[in-house]
């Protein structure tokens, strides 16, 4: 690609939310000469554009909780800017436990949140229903509320990172696939593209489903496997508004949120479809993903006891990708 520099301080491979977020963070920290390479014509073109955008801070360790809290702080800062914001909606979240074992897990997560300085509280079912009037919380054994959680639009977040990182000097090249990382004496010396070699001392691998292949070029075998994830969005319906909290029901393997005036619902498949990265090359695409309506229907069936209205809502679109 014309305009490719011959040198860079740090080269990031992969132009999704992670890669662009790293570029933004490095530029904000004052690191100069940061270059990101993306093989597609546009950024956020693969998995990031297919993500649901949920932002949850309640985790099982203090370190992970504080990292998520830092992310929320970043999203709030970006949202406060008049232009190039991530569509961040700090609507809160409800975690719903349907059995005693899950209640004990939530109690442990609440203790972790307290230690990390994250404000959470257990609320009763009536209070939960005030937050989500269309939902039936009668089966809930406990509901954990986090007011500072929320959701955003992953593509908007990615482009917000890019806009602000560019202002601070980071460069982004699209339609520029990295072919391999060059080593000399066991150290990185550059990244090879179709337009030549970019000399650098540091490479950050954020290549998503192709991260395995990028690592393989320096003799590493990353223990990662792309696993299919999909969710559906319904048609618009009365009572669904953007300010509804995110809801997670782990015992039903579900999450949901509003998507404008529609419902977005996905989940964690007990036996999710995966693909072996050794089965496709760096120069090839991962296997195509067709909507699995059996799985999507199972999500709806799991949700129906808690949101009966889902049975009356038509399907508008399906999103799917290969997160690693």
Outline of the structure:
The protein has helices at residues 17-28, 62-79, 100-116, 125-131, 154-167, 211-216, 293-303, and strands at residues 10-13, 34-37, 54-55, 93-97, 121-123, 142-146, 150-151, 171-173, 178-184, 187-193, 196-199, 202-205, 229-234, 246-249, 254-259, 262-267, 315-321. With 324 residues, the protein is of the alpha+beta class.
Explained architecture:
This protein is of the alpha+beta class and 324 residues long. The protein folds into 2 domains: 10-50 and 155-216, FAD/NAD(P)-binding domain (3-Layer(bba) Sandwich), CATH 3.50.50; 85-148 and 226-321, D-Amino Acid Oxidase, Chain A, domain 2 (2-Layer Sandwich), CATH 3.30.9.10. It is 26% helix and 24% strand. The chain is built from 7 helices and 17 strands. The protein has helices at residues 17-28, 62-79, 100-116, 125-131, 154-167, 211-216, 293-303, and strands at 10-13, 34-37, 54-55, 93-97, 121-123, 142-146, 150-151, 171-173, 178-184, 187-193, 196-199, 202-205, 229-234, 246-249, 254-259, 262-267, 315-321. The protein has an 8-stranded mixed β-sheet with strand order 5-6-4-14-15-16-13-17. The chain has a 4-stranded parallel β-sheet with strand order 8-2-1-12. Strands 9-10-11 form a 3-stranded antiparallel β-sheet, with no helix packed on it. The longest helix has 18 residues, at 62-79. The protein is globular. The protein starts with 9 loop residues before the first strand and ends with a strand.
Q: What is the molecular shape?
A: globular
Helix content: 25-40%
Q: In whole angstroms, how far apart are the ends?
A: 28 Å
SSE string: EHEEHEHEHEEHEEEEEHEEEEHE
CATH topology-level name of the largest domain = D-Amino Acid Oxidase, Chain A, domain 2
């Amino acid at each position: 690609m014309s305009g490719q520099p011959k040198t860079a301080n740090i080269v990031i491979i992969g132009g999704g939310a992670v890669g662009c977020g790293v570029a933004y963070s490095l530029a904000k920290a004052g690191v100069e000469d940061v270059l990101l390479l993306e093989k597609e014509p546009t950024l956020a073109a693969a998995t990031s554009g297919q993500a649901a955008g949920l932002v949850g801070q309640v985790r099982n360790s203090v370190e992970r909780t504080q990292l998520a809290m830092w992310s929320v702080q970043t999203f709030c800062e970006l949202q406060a800017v008049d232009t190039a914001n991530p569509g961040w909606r700090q609507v809160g979240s409800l975690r719903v436990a349907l059995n005693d074992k899950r209640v004990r897990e939530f109690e442990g997560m609440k203790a972790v949140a307290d230690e990390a300085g994250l404000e959470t509280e257990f609320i009763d079912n009536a209070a939960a229903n005030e937050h989500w009037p269309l939902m039936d919380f009668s089966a809930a054994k406990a509901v954990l509320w986090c007011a500072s959680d929320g959701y955003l639009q992953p593509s908007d977040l990615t482009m917000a990172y890019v806009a602000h990182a560019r202002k601070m000097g980071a460069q982004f090249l699209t339609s520029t696939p990295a072919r391999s990382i060059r080593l000399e004496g066991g150290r990185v010396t550059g990244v090879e593209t179709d337009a030549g070699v970019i000399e650098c001392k540091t490479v950050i691998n954020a290549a998503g489903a192709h991260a395995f292949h990028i690592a393989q070029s320096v003799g590493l075998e990353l223990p990662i496997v792309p696993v299919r994830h999909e969710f559906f969005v319904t048609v618009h319906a009365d009572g669904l508004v953007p300010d509804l909290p995110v809801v997670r029901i782990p015992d039903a393997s579900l999450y949901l949120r509003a998507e404008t005036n529609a419902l977005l619902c996905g989940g964690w498949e007990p036996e999710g479809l995966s693909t072996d990265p050794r089965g496709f090359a760096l120069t090839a695409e991962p296997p195509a993903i067709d909507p699995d309506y059996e799985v999507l229907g199972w999500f709806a069936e799991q949700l129906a006891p808690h949101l009966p209205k889902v049975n009356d809502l038509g399907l508008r679109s399906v999103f799917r990708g290969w997160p690693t």
